[in-house]
Amino acid sequence: MDTRQVIDRYYELANAGRWDDWCELFATDTRMDEQLAGHVEGRETLREMMKGFPQTYASFANLPRHVVVSDNHAAVVSHISGRTRHGDAVEADVCNYFEVSDGQITYMANFHDTVPFGPVLSGSR
């Protein structure tokens, strides 16, 4: 897959809740700087992190609004809409930066306000 195909697949799988397949988009030695989780290294670390995602969110959507791709780099402005298992809404605008090599994500960083994720961070009720 080229960079645009990887990015499109990233959002397709995330919005379908197919987290194991989503993790396969990342290189085994991937690096990620995640606004809430901090620095993450390795696909298996990411996979462990994502195991709790379905228990956290009753619904989750990350919808791209603007995608820019240049060679093996991409930036995506998107909007997250979610609902926790306790019924709390999460709405946030996000910017993701990606580096892709050989059809896999080798680096990713995301940037967003952390306030909308308060119910997720606190475990809500």
Q: Would you kindly provide a written description of the structure presented here, covering whatever features stand out?
A:
The chain has 125 residues and is an alpha+beta fold. The protein has one domain (3-112): Nuclear Transport Factor 2, Chain: A (Roll). Helices cover 29% and strands 49% of the residues. The protein has a 6-stranded mixed sheet. It starts with a helix and ends with a helix.
Keywords:
Nuclear Transport Factor 2, Chain: A, six-stranded mixed β-sheet, alpha+beta, SnoaL-like, globular, NTF2-like_dom_sf, 125 residues, isomerase activity, isomerase
Structural domains: how many: 1
Low-confidence stretches: none
- What is the CATH class? Alpha Beta
Distance between the termini: 43 Å
Number of strands: 6
Q: Shape, please?
A: globular
Average pLDDT number: 91
Which architecture does the CATH hierarchy give at level 2?
A: Roll
**CATH topology description:** Nuclear Transport Factor 2, Chain: A
Strand fraction: over 45%
SS content category: alpha+beta
| H and E string | HHEEHHEEEEH
Helix content: 25-40%
Number of helices: 5
The rounded Rg comes to 14 Å
Largest sheet: 6 strands, mixed
